[in-house]
Q: What sequence folds into this?
């Protein structure tokens, strides 16, 4: 800050279903909440994302007879990991963690609402083409540098940070304020992908 850059904090999916006790619980997912709360007011632009699926979403294993969570399926847009039912629109699991300070958010962006396509990234759905509108919002606000925190490091944070770097934003990921699912080496893959895309990983 003070260097001609305009900073935005992007808080990814800090929702009950990704915290201990949730449907797709990430180890230690709730531990990052106090640190995020302390960070928010340092940023002039603040965006929170919310994973927001209709019941019966195509990313749910329960929508694919004979399939279990963490198995893969081929979608029109490529391979897709299957998940337990999670972040169903309007449920408590889809709500933000109750201690997360959401009042300072400028924008709450929901994603994953199309039944036939998942959206890990806050910028593009999993076909890498369908825009969520976030790039336009951030450019309209003059954001040039983005800091990412939230859940999960290896899916929604990772894909968002990679897209942001490819779109030309300066990208920092605060790993101390993220937690990972880490299925099948997915964390190492995501860390390498973020570095290759040009993101700065700290913490
Ligand atoms: C996420 C899997 C499915 C995430 C969302 O927020 O990382 N992961 N939906
Ligand atoms: Zn999801």
A:
């Amino acid at each position: 800050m003070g260097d001609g850059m305009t900073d935005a904090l992007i808080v990814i999916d800090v929702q009950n279903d990704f915290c201990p006790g949730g449907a797709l619980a990430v180890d230690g997912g709730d531990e990052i909440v106090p640190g995020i709360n302390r960070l928010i007011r340092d940023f002039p632009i603040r965006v929170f994302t919310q994973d927001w699926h209709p019941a019966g979403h195509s990313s749910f294993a329960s929508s694919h007879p004979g399939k279990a969570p963490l198995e893969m399926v081929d979608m029109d847009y490529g391979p897709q990991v299957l998940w337990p039912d999670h972040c169903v629109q309007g449920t408590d699991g889809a709500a933000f963690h109750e201690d997360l300070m959401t009042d300072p958010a400028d924008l709450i962006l929901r994603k994953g609402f199309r039944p036939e396509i998942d959206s890990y990234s806050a910028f593009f759905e999993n076909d890498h083409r369908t825009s969520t509108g976030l790039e336009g919002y951030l450019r309209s606000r003059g954001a040039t540098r983005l800091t990412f925190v939230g859940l999960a490091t290896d899916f929604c944070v990772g894909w968002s940070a990679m897209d942001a770097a490819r779109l030309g934003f300066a990208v920092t990921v605060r790993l101390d304020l993220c937690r990972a699912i880490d299925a099948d080496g997915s964390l190492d893959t995501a860390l390498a992908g973020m570095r290759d895309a040009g993101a700065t990983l700290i913490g």
Notes: The pocket of pyrazine-2-carboxylic acid (ligand 1) is lined by residues 13, 18, 51, 83, 120, 151-152, 155-156 (CB under 6 Å). Residues 7-53+97-197 form a domain with the Rossmann fold fold (CATH 3.40.50.850). The chain has a mean pLDDT of 97. The two ends are 18 Å apart (CA to CA).
